[in-house]
């Protein structure tokens, strides 16, 4: 048994080492996007759900910008180091809602980046105006 111990140790390290070298992207924390908006994502619960806040730097309304709540979900990673996710922001200062979907990446320099696409839905009074009620865009977030 004494001779088998070093062999088992080497085999264990060989199996564990690849997972140690692969950096994981973690959603939890503070982020800023390419437009200067700030977002804070809280800890994920056991179902992969999270809550947080979003302070946009841009708006199409003349209302005063306020921090808005967000709710989201991350895919169950199952060992994947760069998970996909989605979240909804219910804007506190306007009659709009935005949904984001994206993926959390670790770049070649080891920095975490969120690549997202979003749909912003504005309230319209008449169905005939539905055509102009949804906007689409992309954002890249970097950890603060």
From TrEMBL:
The keyword Cytoplasm does not apply. Its main location: secreted. Residues 1-21 form the signal peptide. The keyword Cell wall biogenesis/degradation does not apply. Keywords: Biotin, Disulfide bond, Glycoprotein, Secreted, Signal. It holds the Pfam family Avidin. Forms a strong non-covalent specific complex with biotin. This is Avidin. It comes from Aramus guarauna.
């Amino acid at each position: 048994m004494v001779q088998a111990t070093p062999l088992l140790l080497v085999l264990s390290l060989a199996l564990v080492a690849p997972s140690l070298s692969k950096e994981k992207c973690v959603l939890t924390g503070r982020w800023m996007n390419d437009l200067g908006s700030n977002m804070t994502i809280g800890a994920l619960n056991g179902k992969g759900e999270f809550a947080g806040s979003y302070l946009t730097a841009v708006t199409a309304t003349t209302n005063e910008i306020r921090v808005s709540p967000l709710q989201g979900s991350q895919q169950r990673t199952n060992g994947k180091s760069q998970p996909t996710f989605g979240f909804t922001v219910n804007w506190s200062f306007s009659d709009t809602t935005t949904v984001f979907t994206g993926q959390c990446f670790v770049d070649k320099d080891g920095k975490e980046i969120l690549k997202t696409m979003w749909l912003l839905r504005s309230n319209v009074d008449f169905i005939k105006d539905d055509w102009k009620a949804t906007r689409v865009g992309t954002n890249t977030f970097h950890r603060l």
